[in-house]
Amino acid sequence: MSKNTLFDRVWDAHTVAILPSGQTQLFIGLHLIHEVTSPQAFAMMRDRGLKVPYPERTVATVDHIVPTEDQSRPLADSLAEEMMQHLENNTKEHGIRFYNVGSGSQGIVHVIAPEQGLTQPGMTIACGDSHTSTHGAFGAIAFGIGTSQVRDVLASQTLALGKLKVRKIEVNGTLQPGVYAKDVILHIIRKLGVQGGVGYAYEFAGTTFEQMDMEARMTVCNMAIEGGARCGYINPDRVTYDYLKDRDFAPKGADWEKAIAWWESLHSDKDAEYDDVVVFDAANIAPTVTWGITPAQGIGVDEPIPTVAQMPVDERAIAEEAYQYMDLAPGAPIIGTKVDVCFVGSCTNGRITDLREAAKFAAGKQVATGVKAFIVPGSERVKKQAEAEGLDVVFKNAGFEWREAGCSMCLAMNPDKLVGRQLSASSSNRNFKGRQGSSSGRTLLMSPVMVIAAAVTGKVTDVRELMA
Q: The CATH number of the domain where 265 resides is what?
């Protein structure tokens, strides 16, 4: 097993007990909840007459079911309104901080916690949402959990978990122009597979990640779960500390220097032992786009769609399924594939730096005829900041719709859905069948700037062509 890694140190620091099952009872420093996985958990608490013992360690927001156009109450979707009311009532009953729509701080749970400084190095974090791995960008150990586990954390502030192995994924070098964090993680998943990380925590290391800003690092850790890893993290450094300084919940005054000293002590040792090490060269990573129905079915935008013969034997069945579902031909170029809908947003790519970079490529251009294109900020704070910088005007002048904060079309538990066989260029994190709201809708995952390139040309385009 790994030794002297950040994962080991944070795990050990939060261990309450070793259970008879062999699992660790792990203290959870921050619990994030939203409207989808919490109602049943609170109901189970109520059935047992339990109260939340540490309400100050739980923070709630509403994100999945929030409309990004008409947010007037009651919500048009009666089920969404019911879920909203449950969250409002449950947080009030248990004294939990809740960032509701209109509070100025509502947004996607994995956007609001970092931007407020709730997410900090050395923490254990849990949320009833797969992409909780996002918070590992800060040197935290963050787990997506199920509804019964949400109940466990609400009731005891602990989780029963088996300790993971640690794989170090090292990427070195400078990314080419037009290549972003999203391309890096899609490339890693392509190479290691969607099951490659099962049983592992991924430690992302190397000069490529060191050069990334915090929001790019969040994009990488966000999709660790798509590679099968239980969590992903990056050792904290000066970039981390500069991002956190002066945020709402970050330590202040003398506590700030004490916090940095502790955070520094958590780093994986240079001679730390890992269960596995994989190394990539940043120079080999191109703008990447998925062609199939798993995040591992991706290629460089300038590559053809792979043929069955090029696939490992155990991947051929799902490749055949993907060709049929996506209506894409093996051996054909992905460039030039017509798109119907273009979506920039989600917990993967809905932050201010994503929108700034996307706006650079949207400026002075126009969304292609017949394409529906929209931009969804990840939080009310991101929206406000983008508007202060005039990004909304850039997008609207180019023909993009500018929306309110929410998860939007990533999961489509709201009015933002694909229709029929529409094909979406999406900056979100999953391209599963029916993921974006239509049982036959199709999704191509790519970076925000690649989505912009697709929107203004009406087809999958190598964004580097727009940089010439």
A: 3.40.1060.10
Report residue 115 CA to chain centroid gap: 14
Q: From CA 428, how far away is CA 64, in angstroms rounded? A: 13
For 64-117, how does the pLDDT look when each residue is reduced to its tens digit (9 = 90+)?
A: 999 999 999 999 999 999 999 999 999 999 999 999 999 999 999 999 999 999
d(CA 154, CA 160): 13
Element (H, E) at 166: strand 165-172
Residue 204 parent element (H or E): strand 200-205
Instruction: Output the CA–CA distances (angstroms, integers) from residue 356 to 215, 367, 395, in the order listed.
Output: 12, 17, 10
**Confidence check: pLDDT of 412 > 90:** no
Instruction: Tell me the pLDDT band of 1, cut-offs 50, 70 and 90.
Output: confident
Supply the pLDDT for residue 14: 98
How many other CB atoms are there within 10 angstroms of residue 262's CB atom?
A: 14
Q: Do 145 and 175 fall into the same domain? A: no
The pTM score is: 0.97
* 62/152 Cα distance (integer angstroms): 21
pLDDT, position 2: 81
- Domain count of the fold of the chain: 3
User: Is residue 300 within 8 Å of residue 288, measured between CB atoms?
Assistant: yes
Q: What span, in angstroms and rounded, lies between the C-alpha atoms of 41 and 31?
A: 13
pLDDT of residue 179 exceeding 80, the answer is yes
The verdict on residue 5 lying in a domain is: no
pLDDT in tens, 66-75: 999 999 999 9
Q: What angle do CA 220, 221, 222 make, to 5 degrees?
A: 90
Comparing C-alpha atoms, which of 156, 392, 114 is closest to residue 244? Answer: 114
Q: Which of 217, 258, 265 is nearest to 240 (CA)?
A: 217
How far apart are alpha carbons 332 and 149 in whole angstroms?
45
The DSSP secondary-structure symbol of 432 reads -
- Report yes or no: 134 and 218 within 8 Å, Cβ to Cβ: yes
Q: Report the relative pairing of strands 24-27 and 158-161 from DSSP bridges.
A: antiparallel
3-state secondary structure 61-129: ECCCCCCCCCCCCCCCCHHHHHHHHHHHHHHHHHCCEEECCCCCCCECHHHHHHHCCCCCCCCEEEECC
Domain range for 92 = 11-161
Q: Does position 462 have pLDDT exceeding 80, yes or no? A: yes
Span 348-360, pLDDT tens digits: 999 999 999 999 9
Tokens matching residue 401: 């719709």
User: Within this chain, do residues 441 and 349 fall inside the same structural domain, yes or no?
Assistant: yes
| DSSP secondary structure letter of residue 225 | G
347 labeled binding residue? yes
Of 229, 314, 342, the C-alpha closest to 278 is 229
Residue 223, token pair as written in the block: 């999709």
Residue 407 annotated as lining a ligand binding site: yes
